[in-house]
Amino acid sequence: MQHALGNVITAMITPFTEDGALDIDGTARLASHLVDIGNDGLVVNGTTGEAPTTTDQEKALAVRAVREAVGDRARVIAGVGTNDTAHSVELARQAEAAGAHGLLAVTPYYNKPPQEGILQHFRTVADATALPVMLYDIPGRSAAEIATSTLIRLAEHPRIVAVKDAKGDLAASARVLAATDLLWYSGDDVLNLPLLSLGATGFVSVSGHFVAPALRAMREAFVAGDVATARKLHFATLPTTDAIFVTQAAISVKGTLNRQGLPAGPVRSPLIPATPAQIDGVIAALEASSG
User: Does the active-site annotation cover 109?
Assistant: First the structure.
């Protein structure tokens, strides 16, 4: 399972046309580009992909376009998380039919279910298809965490194989890693190297739109035992991450990709376009890290 979902995974934006429609050709071209620069996995229809404002039909089209563009050069992981279990099941089955290699399911948000409800939700989604499932633990967005005890119980499900960890609690991560065989992915770029040190497999990254080569090199250095090089490479990515997260990530990533001439297009409301200064900040960080 070590490579079943990839190691360097970018949570990709969803390109739109200038009039705000799904840009299927742009989605395929961006996916190919991201694989070309070093990603071996792509999350489609995640937070950075503006999933809250894309339709179910658009989600299926995006998954199919990415899968056709990258084939088996990278794993295609479809975001199917909602705060409605029945809807998540529908999205999971739709993603499987569209060719996804795996599913990403975020903790149900806003309605704040108790841990037993979270447990049952994820088990139901995992039962809906034959695909491996990565859980997404991000209480800063969902308002509810996946508790350590819940993660340990969820690890018993044969198709729940991984966690995207954006909780920012290294102690909790260590306890789950010690107690389970779950594949662990950093969901917060500033913690990529610290989570590798605890046994993480890789990253589900936003900055991977731009610095996938450095992320791959950092991971390879760490696995090879060259911690000093891994640390140097990790530190070099931090200014780019900081610049991206000056605002909501889809905003800054799309603005920067547009500046670079890559497919992106506008964001959908309630997101707003990146300012020139925000884009300049990301470009400057990228130039500094490559200099």
Answer: no
